[in-house]
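FAQ

Q: What does a record look like?
A: Structure on top, sequence underneath. For example:
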């Protein structure tokens, strides 16, 4: 990384630590899956003589833990061991909210209460899942399921139980076996392992600090228990950069990063996918990841897949970390050391049957075009500024929409008696090589004699 960019990144991190009155802050940047910059400010115990944090200092990462649980759930889905539309009670019996779905819990759209009943769970030792399940009643369904976004820590406590039921092992063991070990993450754990920062609260009106408790949250641990380091989080970012298919398929990451419900509070565009927060910045960058907050700790984990970068920020304070630092670090990298895409190369082979469908098409009078983008992918492009664009991926004899209006819909290639391509059919929308022609293929027909002057 260039020294001038490093200086800008350090200045941004230093400003955040000082203005936020954070006992310590550690920040890092990932480029193409590698930690290329890291810096620490302050001291890990809040004293003047304490150690300055580095890339191997542990901090509690709070709700970034939820992304690990989401990865485990999506791996179960990919293996066919559950479906996202399964009622959660099918996999975690004993909860009175068992009719909400696994997908709704991942997306915080199940309508459940935000916190578990009883004392503030983040500062008190937690009990097992049976105790959590028995504490929940119909009064803890604060919204109708599937109607709106409502952040629920309880929902991820339940998802942790789903993982344990399907795997037959504690969720933290599943995290270690399925995520940490494949990625070489040796400094991520459910409880702190030295060197680790001390969780601290800073007095709002004086420069004083107070240690915060860091108990085991029990059944609520999947909502925010894990501790990690910049170096480990850098390795973890590879999952969401599409560089760790051994952990999660890039297609599954794409699904997780697609916002299904929107958090309407922020002034910027913000939503929530499946276990991931999604944000479109004012400059057009699409960031996915998660924030983290537990008493004594704050964290930010953001990935910009187009630039193949990630920002990592951890601090040991209950409040004070400004919400823009993660995006700001990524913006600095994009401005001063932008990602250089690999050179384009011609395809080694294109199937003749695929080439037949390339080029212009018309849905009625709307001009579109098919462009082959890979051996198993194509783009449906808009022309003249109208129409619906989408990307498709081959699935058997069909092509299935990845995004846009046609996400999940099948594109079928229709052939005539002689085997030549006559049309494309996308969810009953017929595309032909000429506007409303041939007439016999058009739903509703074409009034003879066809096109005319007025």
């Amino acid at each position: 990384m260039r020294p001038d960019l490093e200086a800008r990144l350090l200045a941004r991190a230093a400003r955040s630590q000082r203005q936020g009155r954070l006992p310590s802050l550690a920040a890092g940047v990932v480029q193409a899956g590698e930690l290329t910059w890291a810096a620490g400010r302050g001291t890990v115990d809040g004293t003047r003589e304490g150690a300055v944090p580095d890339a191997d200092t542990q901090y509690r990462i709070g709700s970034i833990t939820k992304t690990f649980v989401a990865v485990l759930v999506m791996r179960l889905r990919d293996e066919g061991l559950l479906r996202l539309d399964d009622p959660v009670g099918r996999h975690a019996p004993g909860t009175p909210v068992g009719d909400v779905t696994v997908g709704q819990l991942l997306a915080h759209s199940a309508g459940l209460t935000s916190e578990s009943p009883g004392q503030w769970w983040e500062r008190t030792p937690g009990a097992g899942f049976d105790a959590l399940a028995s504490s929940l009643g119909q009064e803890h369904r604060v919204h109708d399921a599937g109607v709106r976004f409502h952040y629920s820590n309880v929902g991820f406590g339940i998802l942790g139980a789903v993982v344990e039921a399907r795997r037959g092992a504690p969720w933290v063991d599943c995290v270690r076996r399925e995520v940490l070990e494949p990625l070489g993450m040796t400094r991520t754990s459910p409880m702190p392992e030295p060197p680790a920062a001390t969780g601290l609260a800073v007095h709002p009106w004086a420069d004083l600090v107070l240690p915060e408790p860091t108990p085991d949250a029990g059944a609520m641990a999947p909502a925010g228990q894990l501790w990690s380091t910049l170096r480990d989080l850098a390795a973890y970012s590879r999952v969401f950069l599409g560089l760790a298919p051994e952990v999660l398929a890039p297609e599954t990451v794409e699904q997780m990063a697609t916002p299904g419900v929107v958090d309407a509070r922020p002034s910027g565009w913000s939503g929530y996918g499946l276990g991931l927060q999604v944000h479109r910045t004012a400059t057009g960058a699409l960031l996915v990841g998660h924030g983290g907050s537990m008493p004594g700790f704050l964290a930010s984990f953001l990935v910009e897949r187009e630039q193949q970068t990630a920002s990592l920020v951890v601090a040991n304070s209950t409040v004070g970390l400004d919400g823009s630092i993660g995006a700001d670090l990524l913006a600095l990298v994009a401005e001063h050391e932008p990602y250089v895409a690999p050179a384009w190369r011609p395809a080694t082979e294109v199937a003749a049957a695929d080439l037949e469908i390339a080029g212009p098409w018309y849905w009625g009078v709307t001009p579109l075009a098919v462009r082959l983008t890979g051996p198993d992918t194509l783009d449906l492009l808009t022309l003249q500024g109208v129409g619906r664009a989408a990307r498709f991926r081959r699935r058997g004899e069909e092509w299935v929409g990845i995004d846009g209006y046609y996400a999940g819909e099948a594109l079928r290639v229709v052939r005539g008696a002689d085997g030549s391509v006559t049309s494309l059919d996308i969810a009953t929308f017929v595309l032909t090589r000429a506007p409303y022609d041939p007439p016999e293929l058009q739903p509703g027909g074409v009034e003879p004699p066809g096109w005319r002057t007025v």
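Q: Is there anything notable about this one?
A: The first strand starts at residue 24 and ends at 31.
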